[in-house]
Amino acid sequence: MSQTRIITLFNQSGGVAKTTLTQNLGYHLALKKRRVLLVDMDPQASLTTFMGLEPDELSISIQQTIVDNKPLPIYPEPIHGMALVPADINLAASEMQLSSAIAREYRLKNGLLDVQDNYDFILIDCPPSLGLLSIISLTAATHILVPIQCQFKSFKGTELLLSTITQVRSHTNPRLQFAGFVPTMFDGRTAQESRTLKAVQEQLSEIGTVYPPIPKTIAFADASERRVPLALFDKNHPAVGILKKIANSIDKLELKL
Ligand code: ADP
Ligand code: MG
């Protein structure tokens, strides 16, 4: 059986740091000499952009695997020590193009089969929706990691998220496990966020590990503007230590038999 841990970062809300975490956790796993592949499953291709590529200028996209059933198009050179499968805007049409395809939920899972043993970790960055691309990403995963903002409205959204996971488990991926929840963009100065963090820790820890919160800081936007992981922009930033800690926990995730 493959030992590769395939982790899908999922939350149907946008702007909760899915892409930021995919890039940064991948980077810290790569620093630990783990072989890391990042897969961009969002038609907005933010991960591809954060990694320094121009989605419109590439001749490869995950769409080739998802729509055309072709081998996984891995970018020819590693970037910051990680392999990358880029996305582009054409991926947006795939949900329609696949509308009558048989076993379409398994397109990424099948595409990964040929290459997964070359990696210790595969991190999949989802679009902000409950649509087919997210289901395809969750079907391919061994684990799901959920970035969550400590605001009341995002906490409410977890009910919908959990029912999606239940659906995926009962239809396409019974082995899907929770890698846990990462509270993101946490502003400890506001009483409401501190209360919500406490509620997240109390209520969600029954479902999966709740990792230490990542502070809200402009440094992430600065790093992504320079198209590098945070540690390459400011290696002494306090958030770097937290990312490292989370990566260490992810590194210990086990596979269900
Ligand atoms: P998603 O992929 O969930 O839509 P992104 O990772 O693209 O979210 O993040 C959305 C925006 O928030 C980006 O501009 C990113 O730089 C910024 N961001 C990410 N993490 C943090 C943080 N901890 N504090 C402040 N801004 C953040
Ligand atoms: Mg994103």
Automatic annotation (TrEMBL):
InterPro entries for the chain: AAA_dom, DNA_Partitioning_ATPase, P-loop_NTPase
Alphabetized Pfam families for the sequence: AAA_31
Family matches, as Gene3D superfamilies: P-loop containing nucleotide triphosphate hydrolases
Domain AAA: 5-177
Name of the protein in its database record: ParA family protein
Naturally occurring in which organism (per UniProt): Nostoc flagelliforme FACHB-838
